[in-house]
Amino acid sequence: MFGLGVYPDPHHRLEVVIEMMREMSLQTDPQAMVQSYGRRMQEFVRSDGFLSISRRGLEYPFYRVTRSAKWARDFDPWKNRDRLPLLKGGILAELIYSNRPHLIHPFHLNPADPAAEYLASTNTLAAIPHYDKGESVNMVLHLFKENAHFTIDDLPEMVWVSNLFGRTVNNLALTRDLQAAYEVVDNELKVVADLQRSLLPAVLPDIPGVELGAYYNTARRAGGDYYDFFELPDGRWGWFIADVSGHGTPAAVVMAMMHSLAHAFPGPPSSPSDMLAYLNDKLANGPASNNGTFVTAFYGIYDPATREIEFASAGHHPPRLLRKNSLKVEVISPPRALPLGILPGETFSSARVHLSPGDHLVLFTDGITETFDHEGNMFDYERLDAAIVAARCESPQTTIDSILKALDTFAHGRPPDDDRTLVVAVAK
Fold it and tell me: Which residues of 11-28 are buried (b: 16+ CB within 10 A; e: fewer)?
């Protein structure tokens, strides 16, 4: 096999191979790996020159020269494809399009060959194809000026070793390209996430009779959760929380649509049902309905004068209410209705609840209750209610901290699968 003449002692040869493989494993750049591999292989093959060609993206009889020992400066063919010489026909075209390895001895060069400048003074030529999807897309040629010790018996090992290396380099190049693409996408998603967060209240409003707290965290860069507050006539305030189906950028786009639609409502709603009906018809008749997207939502109108909240829900998880000095959480369940965006003309009924000083009202999205541990168990309502009770009705932030601590303890470090939003109101 090739290299035996150079390293006849198998123990010495093994050490050289180990050193070579360790060096290869340190490479993270495909160009650097090829250069390192080329230097190492010269220790085994001891050729007088080399040439690499490629027909990727081309048709017979065209091919490109990707590397040559005759070049004064080696450059990255992945990043400089336009600089690669494009040749047509000749011996190299026949070799690479044959889809087979070749050992030509003696080699007689036609001076008119398109690749004559690369093959000058060659007496023996070994052509090793690199296969991709069954075709010899790339080829490495080892060039010898004199009679080489390289024989036809060396070809089998050379073909499989060279192809294994070629696949490794190709995967490394793909990894580099994917990493670059991921960085571009991640930067774009960061912009989307920043824009999305700018749609949320920058500062929680100062509403008479209640103290507010909020928590918002997306499972990815951007998400589909949304909460907002609307100042209404007569000192009333609208409280809104919603959850778009799905995750990531598509959900964030619908979330932005929700923000625009909610703020474009024609006049203050006389009841929460009006707002939800308006949003539902806009979404159900809009482009978001074409891909099956829907939105769960809870909207309440709080009147500081009466301490009452009139509320309606579109398939959203019912809020939790903890009365002062109580150890049992109440479920605020409005009449059931479909989520927004499913059926045009859906009607939404409303209900009312009175808040007394010290009462805690907790609005949330399903990323809270549908948090899972490593065994697939769900956090669910029972653990949420226990965390609310454990907060002892001290402040909105105390309640939020208690819920988040319970989530972390339950999940044991498992990252969230869904966006998480909490809005807590404490009556004063």
Answer: eebeebeeebeeebeebe
Residues 6+ apart with CB under 8 A from 169: 30, 33, 34, 37
SS3 category, 296:
strand
Measured between alpha carbons, how far is 173 from 16 in angstroms, rounded to an integer? 26
> What does pTM read for this prediction?
0.65
Q: At what angle do helices 272-284 and 248-263 cross, to 10 degrees?
A: 130
Alpha carbons 232 and 140: distance in angstroms, whole number:
75
Pairwise CA distance, residues 145 & 106, whole Å: 10
What does DSSP assign to residue 285? Answer: T
What pLDDT digit, counting tens, does each position of 114-140 carry?
999 999 999 999 999 999 999 999 999
Strands 351-354, 329-331: pairing kind: unpaired
- Angle between helix 30-45 and 155-198 (nearest 10): 170
Number of residues that make up the chain: 428
pLDDT digits (tens, 9 = 90+) for 283-300: 998 766 667 789 999 999
Let me know: does 427 contact 209? Beta carbons within 8 Å.
yes
Q: What is the spatial distance between Cα 211 and Cα 219, in angstroms, rounded to a whole number? A: 27
Q: Which residues contact 30 (CB under 8 A, 6 or more apart)?
A: 78, 169, 170, 172, 173, 176
